[in-house]
Write a structure and sequence with these properties.
Oligomer: single chain
Number of domains: 2
Shape: elongated
Structural class: mainly alpha
Number of helices: 17
Strand content: under 5%
Radius of gyration: 26 Å
Length: about 325
C-alpha cells in the first residue's frame, strides 16, 4: 500500500505509513508518549536493511522521510554491508548523504548508538572511492574518514588521489604526508599537562580538563606511505616517476558502484600537484623548507608547462618567505 501507490498522499498510502510509525516501539513512544501494545510491534525481521534501502533514495519525499527516520533507530542493528553504505553515499538527496556521514563519523556516545556504523565495516577500497565521487560532500566524507581511521591511509590509494581534479583532495594528500613525516618537536609519548587551577574553577568547569587537552599528538601509523625516509624524497617520487598504469578490469565491487570523477591526465596532474605544493608552502614555512629544493630541481624540466609552473611556485614561495630566498640563493 505504501510503496505501490502512485501518489504518496493517497489515503491507503498515508494509512500504511501511519501504521508503521505507530507500531514501531521507539517512534510510537516518541510521538504518543505511550508504548506499543504487547505483541503489536512490527517484527524486527520485517524492518530490515534490504527492504528499506530502496525507500531511502525514493523520489517520493514522504517515503524517503519515513525510511530515514527508521534508519535513525535501526541502522546500528542492521549493521549493513559496505555495498549498501556506498549506494546510500551516492544518493542524489542531500539528507541521505548527511545521515550516512553522521552514522560513519559519530563517536560512541549513548545518543549515537542506535544509528552509529561500526568502523570495522569500512574498507579502504570503499572509503577511497568516496574521495573520487562526483559529489563534493561525499569526497569530503572520504577525507574525514581517512583522517579518523589511520589504518585507511593505504600508500597506493594515497598516491592515486594525487591525480584528483579536486584541489582539496590533492591538498589533503600532501597534508597527510606532511603530518606523517614532519618533526613535531615533541617526544613520542608527550602529553599536555593540565594547568594548576583553584578548587572553585574545578567546580564550575563542566568538561574535565584532561578531556579538553586531549591525549597528545595523533599517533603515526606503523607503515609510512612510502619506503623513503623523508618527505622530500616522497614528493620527488610523485613528481619524477611515471604514473602507474591503469588497474586491470575487475568484477564489480562496492567501490565500483559509485559514479567516480574522471582523474586528471598524468601531465596535468603533476601541474596541479605543483600548484598544491606551492599553496601549502606559502602557508607553512616548515613545509616550504622541504619542498623548495625539490621545486628548484623540477624547474629544470624540459617541459615548458612544468618549467613555468615551478618557476611561478619558487618565485611566490621566496616572496612569501624571504629568509628562504636569502638562505638558498
Amino acid at each position: 500500500m505504501m510503496c505501490d501507490a502512485k501518489n504518496p498522499d493517497e489515503p491507503l498510502a498515508r494509512f500504511a505509513r501511519s501504521y508503521i510509525r505507530h507500531h514501531h516501539p521507539d517512534i510510537c513512544l516518541k510521538e504518543t508518549d505511550r508504548p506499543v501494545d504487547p505483541g503489536a510491534e512490527i517484527p524486527t525481521d520485517f524492518l530490515n536493511f534490504d527492504r528499506l534501502l530502496p525507500l531511502v533514495s525514493d523520489r517520493r519525499e514522504p517515503l524517503r522521510k519515513l525510511a530515514l527516520e527508521l534508519a535513525h533507530w535501526e541502522f546500528a542493528r542492521w549493521d549493513p554491508a559496505i555495498e549498501g553504505v556506498v549506494e546510500m553515499c551516492d544518493s542524489p538527496f542531500a539528507e541521505v548523504r548527511d545521515f550516512v556521514a553522521q552514522a560513519m563519523t559519530a563517536d560512541d556516545a549513548p545518543e549515537h548508538r542506535r544509528y552509529r556504523l561500526n568502523p570495522d565495516v569500512l574498507t579502504a577500497d570503499a572509503v577511497y572511492s568516496f574521495c573520487e565521487s562526483r559529489n563534493a560532500e561525499t569526497r569530503s566524507l572520504g577525507m574525514k574518514l581517512i583522517d579518523l581511521h589511520p589504518r585507511l591511509k593505504v600508500p597506493t590509494e594515497l598516491f592515486r588521489l594525487t591525480e584528483s581534479p579536486d584541489n582539496r583532495v590533492r591538498a589533503f594528500v600532501i597534508r597527510t604526508f606532511w603530518a606523517l613525516y614532519r618533526d613535531r618537536g615533541t617526544t613520542p609519548l608527550w602529553k599536555p599537562k593540565p594547568p594548576i587551577e583553584s578548587s572553585k574553577k574545578k567546580k564550575k568547569q563542566q568538561t574535565p580538563i584532561d578531556e579538553q587537552l586531549g591525549s597528545g599528538a595523533p599517533g603515526r601509523p606503523d607503515r609510512l606511505p612510502a619506503e623513503f625516509d623523508h618527505l622530500q624524497s616522497l614528493l620527488r617520487r610523485i613528481l619524477f616517476e611515471l604514473p602507474p598504469g591503469r588497474p586491470p578490469n575487475r568484477d564489480a565491487t562496492a567501490a565500483d558502484q559509485m559514479v567516480r570523477v574522471k582523474p586528471l591526465p598524468a601531465r596535468q596532474a603533476k601541474l596541479k600537484l605543483v600548484e598544491t605544493m606551492r599553496d601549502l608552502a606559502i602557508e607553512d614555512v616548515d613545509f616550504a623548507k622541504y619542498v623548495l629544493p625539490l621545486l628548484r630541481e623540477f624547474k629544470q624540466s624540459r617541459g615548458k608547462s612544468e618549467h613555468a609552473a615551478c618557476l611561478v611556485a619558487v618565485t611566490r614561495i621566496e616572496n612569501r618567505h624571504n629568509e628562504l630566498r636569502e638562505a638558498e640563493s
